[in-house]
Please model this.
Amino acid sequence: MNLVFLGPPGAGKGTHAEILSKEKRLVHLAAGDILRRNVKEGTELGNQAKSIMARGELVPDALVNDMMFAEIRSLKAKGSEGFILDGYPRTIGQAEELDRFLTREKMSLTAAVNFDASEAVVIERLSGRRICAVDGKIYHVRNMPPKTEGICDCHGQPLLTRKDDQPETIKTRLAVYHESTKPLIDFYFRKGILRHVAADGDAPSVQKMLEKLFENTR
Ligand code: AMP
Model:
């Protein structure tokens, strides 16, 4: 099963991709996480992406496409059971290139899941989001707090706020979503593979809906 998770930043794509990928033995490929890893390691891609990401804008399609295709190719070589693409594609151009790539690789998408979340909810989620500095695990100060305030459960390290989760950058990221990414809902609807999940609720209830969508799909 190969899935795409769509939705605004803060809709819960990363959280639910992490859970569903474990249940269904899929590989979770989060474009933002892979880019942040490149920034941290100071690769050429990371250096090109760093300031763009800090502003909350989109990294050019060609860079992100090559990065994601390399990830998918390596999964295929390892014989994985499928993937969840989280935060990719984010533009119509990326979606079209992804289609061409998958056709060349004799692969296809099973579904594109749209996480339908209201603006007020995503702003609340993004501004309270904290991440583990070691593995990027996501917490929230109220909805998903760590056992000890401000400290990661797994590594005992202080939790961080992402640079792009600052109020001004959140505004830019939401504007970018509306302009460039939202049209993908229609793109996948026309392909007949769009599914919706109401994503304003708490994580367990959203997860239940998601599991129901794919209970009989491998
Ligand atoms: P995310 O962790 O998904 O919120 O992504 C963080 C940042 O990485 C975004 O604000 C963009 O700057 C960049 N990014 C992630 N995915 C993409 C993509 N598919 N296309 C372009 N830029 C991306």
